[in-house]
Each structure stands twice: as C-alpha cells, then as structure tokens.
Specification:
disordered N terminus; binds 1-deoxynojirimycin; Immunoglobulin-like; 17% strand
C-alpha cells in the first residue's frame, strides 16, 4: 500500500461551521434515529427495494470505497465527481467533519437514488483522545478498559461524521519482529477473544446503529500475524490446528459479539490470498459462523490478487474477490479499482446478479442499520462538544494506568516517595516526545494535548522537587522512511543530538539527582504497519546511555515505551516498567504510577524472550519429546522466557490458596466450577490478575502444556482476601483436532493451574467421562 495520510485538521469553529451546514443539513442532523433497531426483515426489505432500482454501475459503486488519498485539490475534485456520479458508496481517510458533511450532501442530494455514503477511518486507539495502544490495553487484562476506550473513540468518531472503524485488529501475534503486534492483544487466543469482543461492544454499543457508536471492523481475516519471519505482508503458512485453535478464535469472538464488518487480509494463507479465499470468507465466515455484516478488502487487496499471481488481470481480480465473499473493495489509488469492472463481468456472465446483489445488500443493510438514511449529516456543534469532553481524558488516563506492566522492582524502589525525592533526572529520547507517547496509528492528535512523561512528572511534583531533563541520545531514523511519517513528525524533524556529549551531560545530571527515570524504547514509526524489525535491541545508542546511567550507582527506573519485548542485554536497572505507548494522558498516568497513587497491575500479553533467537516462543506450546530437558533445547542459554506470559509485579504481594474444583468428574458438555482464594499479603492496596490455565493430559491430539481459560483482575486492600470464581465451559475443553478434522471434546484428565502468571504452581485435576 502506498498512502499519504495527510488528514485535514477538523476545522471545528462552532457557529461558523454550523453556518456552512446550511439550514436543511442542520435540521436533518437534529432528527434522532429511531430508538428501537429495525427488524432483520425490515432492513432486508428496504435494501431489496433499493437494489431493485439499481443499475449494475450503481451496484458496483456501492461496493467501492475510495481514498481521498492526497487531499490535493485535484484529488478532492475527483472524489467529489465520483461521489456525485454514485461511483463510490464509501470513503476512507477523511475525518474533517465539514468535508464529510459536504460529501454526504452530494451523495444524498445529487445522486439518483440518494444513497448516503459510509465513512470509514482507522480509529485504532482513539480519534482526538488517544488511548494506550491496543497491546497495552490487552496488558490491562481488563476487558472493560478495552470497551470503555473504544466507546470513547466511537463517540468522537461518530461526532465528526464517521460511521465505521477499521478496528479492532484481532490478529494473534507470536512474533515481535512483526510491527503490527502493537495493534492486537498479543499471543493468546483466549485473552485475544476477550479483548476482541470487548472492543466490538465498545465501538458498536448495544446494537449496530446505537447512537454515538460506529461499526467495528475486526481485521485482518485471517492469519496475518503469522507472517514469515515477522515480515509485514509476507506469506502465512498455518496448520489447520493453529488456525482453528489459535488464529481464528478472536475473529469468531468478534463475530459472536455482533461485529458489523470484517476486513480481509493482504497476504496469502497457505497459498491462497486471503482476499480471494472462498473457504475463509464464505465457508468459515458466513456459512459456519453465520456472519451477517459486510466484508471489505484491505486497501487495494482485490486488485492485489494479480500481484500474488492469483488473478490474471484486474477484471479477474474483481471476480475472484467478489465470488470468494468480498462485498466492498477498499480501492487502491484511482484507476486500478477491480470492482469497477463488475458490470462488465456481469454482462459477460462471469458473475451472477445474485452474487452482485448479495454483496450490495450487505452494504446497504449496514447503511440502513446505522440510520444513515434518516440522519446522514454531521451535527458540527455536537462534534465540538464530544471532542472536548473531559471525561474522555479520564478514560484515557485510567486505561494507561491499568496497562502498565511492572517487570522489576528491586528493593521496592518503586513507588518513589514524594517526601524523600528532592531531585529527579528524567532522561531519554522518549521522555518528552508527545508524538511518541501516543504511538502509531494516530493522525489527528494534537501535541499540546498530550502529556509526556516529563510533563506528567513535573505536574505531579510541582515545586517540591527539582526535575532535570536530557534526551540522552538521538532516536535514530529508520533505514527507509515510514509511509506514515511526514511534516513535523518525520524522522528528519527529530532533534539531532551529539550522542556522546549528551550521554556525558545526562550522566552528570544523574550524579546530582536522587533518582534517574529513563524513558527508552522505540519511536512511534518503528512499530505498526510496515514496521517489522530484525532486532529487539534498543535502537541507536540507548543501550550505551542506559549502561552509563546504571554505572553511576544511583537508583534507576527504566520506563520502556515499546510494544515489543526489547532486549536490554542483561542490564539490571532497579525498576523496569513497560508503559507501552500510553496515549494522550500517558504522562499523567505514569506519574501516578511512579509516585504510588496507583499500583501497576498489568500483565504481559506475550512471553518476553531472553533473546531474539528464541522467537517464536509461545507459552502455549505442545508437550514434546523429553519435556524435562525442555530448558536445555538450546546449548547456549535457557529456553524459558525472561518474563512469562501473564507476568507483572505490583506494589503489594499476593498469595493464592484453597484451589477448589467444584466437580472432580464431569460429563462431556458440562461446565466445571473452580474457585481460589486470593489474598493481598502486602501493605498497599493493589490489583492482581487471577489466571486459570488448563492442560489436557491425553486425547485425540497433543494439546498445549498450558492454555489460559479464565482471568479476573481484582483490587484488594492490604490483608483482604477474595474468593475468585471461574467457570470452565465445555467449549474451553473443546478443540479442533487434525485427526478428526473437526472439533472434539475428549474423555480425559485435565490439570488446572491457578496463579498470577503462566508459571502458576497451584494445581488440581478433574476428569471428563461419559456417565
Ligand atoms: C492497510 C492496513 O493493513 C489496514 O489495517 C488499514 O485499515 C488500511 N490500510 C486502511 O488504512
């Protein structure tokens, strides 16, 4: 994909903007959509009534989504002309409410059938208020954080006139070289499914078309996260067992949660491009799972079926995508749209009217359910109010606080004591960078609305302590610039520093401070789409900076701003906390965490390897030959991760006891109740996450050594004990077996492990037996 994302800044100038709407628009915008959602039959009848009036060209238009690609005037004119001619039914990459409203007026007032446009956008972790990146939210192990965050994002998006988010990304990622690991929930299908469903609920609300909500578009269907070598877009080869038991699971959860859209992936899955893959898009998605929404391609992915050596030409690409089960083409730049050729393919008998109409119906039904025929326009005054809602900033701060994962805390260095810390040296290229703090997939954020770590610490301490700052070293540029970097956020715009001299200055600063806080990691464009990496080292000379600061002997806190498990080469700072890309309130949250106003309670959503050579290293691997020597699989270092999946410290201590299995033997299809006592044995109020893992001892296939099947994040006062209840459902004991090529539930013995990471030691067993 080649795209220049120059997003028009929303010109939300209140009254002036309202005036530009015109009387009819404002009046239309006041009309609220019907309170009760229309019935399926009613929606279908309305869609079919429209389809009966449509020409093949108008149908192809509804199946086409255009980019406003450059925002250049000639491009804008072309988009306008295409919309006026009803040659596109949807648009992406525009989030300026005035422009969206203008285009909507054209579609609704100037086209023959007056079908409104559906506006989509990459609302990945916020529009104006930026939440922590999705992998961070997964690390909260709190689906409510995901739901609340995407509800805020939806409210802001809907307010500016958008109808649909290209999110959540629910791709399982087991290879941190892959840059898009930042957009998902990590390596585990159970955690991933919980986060997928929560995000769909947050985006869509109670039903498709709920006021203040938008359509969720889980992506990229399917397998995209398993790219060969972690190289973005490269081929994916997955066994059926991995597909069904791991990679498809979060998609199924998102569909069950009612997702209105699915985006097909770019790459080939086991040799068949995902966007031309009938088995995936029709057999699995529609027939097996009963998906009722519409399928969009990733940008240009239909046309791209030629690149794969799959389709013979652009027309064939359109035919192959449509007949595989795609409904809408997210078009590549003008001129190469494959779906534009659908009328010709219909005339030549290469597709049927039924195939074309089914796709059009799926798209029109989404527009009907979203209430666009009743309320197509943007209420610009309301938009301003929603974007400035202070409650949104609170949601973002809480999300960042709940996402942080404390990995080391020697001698209880954290939390820092307000009263005792009189001077603090804040160091690192990410410590005061607003752009990096919000992370990738942010186009419209305002730097002055973002709280950096430095700003957060300063605001917290006020005049009570001296805060010195040094960037320490330069954040280096990528080998080739990112497609997302431009203007003030281009790599070339970063401060260029004499690293050796600045390291000396930083070390001097630390020498005269009580404590050093280093903010290290990867810049925002080093992660995300087209941001795969062949190393897990700290980029540039950050490692040298870290080692020099540790050598001072002063207490050192390292805050990692990263979505990859970085390799610190054995450096042992006093404290190490992963703060991810914490979003626009990140610095405020980090300050609250550093000074103990809240305790970190996040847990890793992936195994953190000791070394890049261990990748992939999923905790849920199969038991294999000589498991007792599994720690010796490499002769040069242990095989275990540096930090296991599910790991994270708090400012307190916790103990699990009294693990009880409600029923020692159950029949297939029966649920298994489990309970455990969790006690805060420390002196501070804090959160811990009770995690339940199972292991099937024998059966139709070899199963993972451990699999997460339940979790609960709980807050406990010092000395408080809570009994945490789990219910292992029959579907948690069911899996897809290659031997039977179907889902099975075996009669067997299960081990249960409960604790606060994937190495949990408290264990019990139960049996599944036919009565
Ligand atoms: C390509 C990306 O793969 C996809 O995730 C994104 O939604 C589209 N481009 C639109 O930006």
């Amino acid at each position: 994909m080649k795209s220049v994302r120059k997003i028009r800044r929303a010109a939300l100038a209140g009254a002036a903007v309202i005036a530009s709407l015109g009387a009819s628009g404002a009046a239309q915008a006041q009309r609220a959509p019907a309170a009760a959602p229309p019935s399926d039959a009613e929606v279908r009848a309305r869609a079919d009534a429209l389809i009966a009036q449509m020409t093949p060209e108008e149908k192809a238009g509804q199946l086409t989504q255009y980019f406003d690609f450059t925002n250049a005037p000639e491009e804008s004119k072309r988009v306008t002309d295409e919309m006026a001619a009803a040659r596109a039914g949807s648009l992406l990459f525009v989030n300026d409410p005035v422009e969206l409203d203008r285009l909507q007026h054209i579609a609704v007032e100037k086209t023959r059938l007056k079908i409104p446009l559906l506006f989509g956008y990459d609302v990945i972790h916020g529009l104006r208020t930026i939440m922590p990146v999705p992998i961070a939210v997964a690390a909260s192990w709190d689906p409510k954080v995901a739901e609340d965050g995407q509800a805020v994002a939806a409210a802001e998006a809907r307010a500016v006139g958008l109808h649909w988010a290209f999110a959540p990304m629910v791709d399982i990622a087991r290879d941190p070289r892959w840059g898009r690991i930042v957009e998902g929930a990590g390596e585990d299908p159970y955690l991933g499914s919980a986060m997928a469903a929560a995000q769909v609920r947050g985006f869509q609300g109670s039903h498709l078309g709920a006021p203040g909500h938008i359509i969720a578009g889980p992506k990229h269907f399917a397998g995209y996260g398993a790219a060969l070598g972690g190289r973005d877009y490269d081929e994916v080869n997955l066994s059926d067992s991995e597909l069904w038991n791991v990679y498809l699971k979060p998609f199924k959860a998102a569909v069950d949660a009612g997702a209105g859209n699915i985006m097909s992936a770019y790459m080939g899955l086991n040799g068949t491009p995902a966007t031309g893959n009938r088995w995936l898009l029709t057999d699995v998605l529609r027939k097996t799972w009963g998906f009722k929404g519409f399928v969009v391609t990733d940008a240009g992915a239909a046309h791209d079926l030629m690149t794969h050596g799959f389709a013979s030409d652009n027309q064939d690409a359109g035919v192959r995508a449509l007949t595989a089960g795609v409904d809408m083409e997210m078009a590549p730049p003008f001129g190469t749209s494959a779906f534009k050729t659908l009328p010709q393919s219909l005339a030549e008998g290469k597709i049927t009217t039924t195939q074309l109409d089914d796709a059009v119906r799926h798209v029109l039904e989404a527009k009907i359910r979203m209430g666009l025929f009743e309320q197509p326009y943007v209420d610009l005054k309301a938009a301003e109010r929603v974007l400035n809602d202070p409650a949104h900033r609170v949601t973002a701060r809480i999300a960042a606080e709940r996402s942080a994962v404390l990995l080391r805390n020697e001698g209880g260095l954290l939390p820092l004591d307000h009263k005792r810390v009189k001077s603090i040296a804040v160091i690192g290229p990410l410590a005061d960078s607003a752009r990096d703090t919000v992370g990738p997939w942010v186009f419209d954020q305002k730097d002055d609305e973002t709280v950096t770590v430095l700003a957060g610490i300063k605001a917290k301490l006020g005049a009570a302590a001296r805060v010195d700052y040094s960037p320490g070293v330069t954040m280096p540029a990528r080998l080739h610039p990112s497609i997302f970097e431009s203007g003030p956020h281009a790599a070339t715009a970063r401060p260029q520093i004499d690293d050796a001299a600045e390291i000396r200055r930083a070390v001097g600063m630390v020498g005269s401070a009580d404590v050093a806080v280093l903010v290290l990691g990867e810049g925002w464009s080093m992660i995300g789409e087209q941001a795969s990496r062949s190393s897990l080292d700290l980029p540039g000379r950050q490692q040298e900076l870290l080692d020099a600061v540790i050598a001072t002997g002063k207490p050192v806190v390292v805050l990692l701003m990263s979505a990859r498990p970085l390799d610190l080469k054995g450096s042992k700072p006093g404290a190490l906390m992963n703060i991810w890309y914490p979003g626009s309130q990140g610095g405020a949250a980090v300050a609250n965490l550093l000074f103990g106003e809240v305790s970190p309670g996040g847990k890793l959503p992936y195994n953190w390897p000791r070394n890049i050579g261990q990748i992939p290293l999923p905790y849920a691997h199969l038991t294999s030959f000589q498991p007792k020597t599994s720690e010796q699989r490499y002769w040069n270092e242990p095989n275990s991760p540096l930090y296991p999946f599910g790991y994270g410290l708090t400012y307190s201590t916790f103990a699990f006891s009294n693990l009880k299995i409600g029923k020692g033997t159950v029949a297939p299809g029966e649920a298994v109740p489990v309970s455990v006592d969790l006690k805060n044995t420390g002196t501070r109020k804090a959160d811990d996450v009770a995690q339940l893992y199972i292991h099937q001892r024998h059966g139709s296939a070899a199963r993972p050594v451990r699999e997460l099947k339940g979790f609960q994040r709980v807050t406990l006062a010092p000395g408080e004990t809570r009994t945490v209840e789990f219910m292992i459902k029959p579907e948690d004991l069911t899996y897809w077996a290659s031997a039977t090529r179907d889902f099975v539930q075996d009669e067997t013995t299960f081990d249960v492990y409960v604790g606060d990471d994937s190495n949990a030691s408290l264990t019990a067993t139960f049996e599944v037996r036919k009565p």
